[in-house]
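Progress against Task 2.4 (sequence-to-structure conversion) is shown through the following example record, which the project officer requested during the mid-term review.
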Amino acid sequence: MMAGKMKNDPSKEEISGQTPQDGAADEGNGETSPVDKVVEEAVVWINNKSKTTIEKGSVEIGEYVLNEIFKGDIQQALSRNPRKQQSFSKICEHEDLHVDPRDLALWVRVAALDRLFDEKKLKLPGLTFSHKRELVKLSEQDDILILAQDAQMGGWSVRELRIEVQAMRGLKFPPDTGKILVQKLENSLPLLGDDLLLEFLEDPEKLKLDLSRVDRVRVLNSIKRLREDSGKFEKLVNKLDKDLMEIEGSGNRKSA
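Structure tokens generated for the chain above:
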């Protein structure tokens, strides 16, 4: 009886739904195994849930600050420098704040933008939180309203909207500036001959707004390989290093 039970009992290898031979066959045929499929689906779900949760919290924080600190003042909250409000400025400078002040200022502007849309009775269901993050980079409300409606009617992606916002702000740098910059940093001679990128490197505001965090870290890594250069390039690299470290460092200190 014991032998018969052992013969019919599922093996440990079959717990995952396939035998080792099945897995080997899938791998040999270039097919995705059930385990790999589960992993891929889990990663997608986790990423989507994380994004939704983060955005929900950002919206709630922005609305809270708009109501409690700015007392619902849309104009002041939409200002390109909302930190001029005394109480808000103190919040941003508080040593126990776990949020990057730049993010907090942006969330408040997004909350004010939603309130502005409501006042103007604009229905813009196609605009996500990420779309609104791009829109609040503009300083003129008329520009924001025009571009928001264009994005809604045109079904623009966030990337497409970003290009239009940059054009309206008079920026000459494309959305993939980070990748171009890293490529240029691998070789100092082309970089020194590119006046546009030199202008970009010397502007901390552009480094903050137009580079992703990943690109900033990659640039920092590239800088380590360029320390041997001298003269103008050495001066430029030192300034770039300082600006990026301050941008990244301030965010890390607030998150600690």
